[in-house]
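thread: overnight batch results

M.L. [08:02]
morning all. the overnight job finished for the chain we discussed friday. pasting input first so we're all looking at the same thing
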Amino acid sequence: EGNEIRLFMQWGKDLPAQDLDMDLSCHIIFDEECRMENEMCFFGRLTATGCQHSGDIRSIPNKVGTAEYINIDVNILRQKKAKYVTFVCNAYSNGALSPNLVVGWMDSKHKMKVSERTGVAYDPSTVIHQVRIAQSLQKGLLFGILDVEAKEIIWMELPFQGQLANDLSLDTVKALLNKLNAKTTIGNLLTLKAEAQGLQIVNDKTLADEVYDMQWAEYGKVNELFL
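M.L. [08:03]
and the structure it wrote out:
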C-alpha cells in the first residue's frame, strides 16, 4: 500500500558484542535483460535512484542486535522507468549469514532509527513480510523482488555464494522471473472455465451469479474448477 516501502535486516539479537558485518543491498534493474550494469544501493553507494540506505553497520552491541534498512520510493522508480528492484542480504564477515538474522519489508511510514553503539529495536507490528534465518546458509540470500510497474513484491528465497550483492547472477533472477510468469494462475483457470462454459465475466459482484474472490481461493476450492 502507498508508494514507499522499507527493506530491513536485523541481526545479532541475544549475541555478545562483537564485529559481525552483515550487508543489506538492492539492485535497481532498468531493462528486461537484467544486465549487470544496472544500479545498486549498498554500503558503498547509500543514495541511488529512488533508494536511500541507512548506512553500513559492521558490529553489534551486547545482546540487543542491530539493523540496516533501505527506503524505496516506488514513484521515483516508475518515473525513471525501472523494471525491478531485487532485495539482497550478504555476510561480509567470515562465515555464513547469521542464524538469527531477519530480513523483510515493512511499512515505511513508521520511523526506524539505528545506532551503531546501542543497536535498534524495531516494532514487529509494522512488518509486512519477514524471513528468519533458522540455520547457517550461504554467504548471500535474494529474499524478494519488487515489480515496479505493478507495485507488487514477489517473495523469493534464493541462497547464493558471494560476499557482495554484486555476486548474485541477475541472469538467474531473470530466469526465475520468466519461470514464475509462465505459471498458470487461478485467474487463468477461471477465464478458461468461463470460455468453456460460455459464461460472461463481470467485475461487479452484485451482477454475478457465481463469485470467485480471494476468500473463495483461500478456502482451497480451486479443485472445484476441475469437477
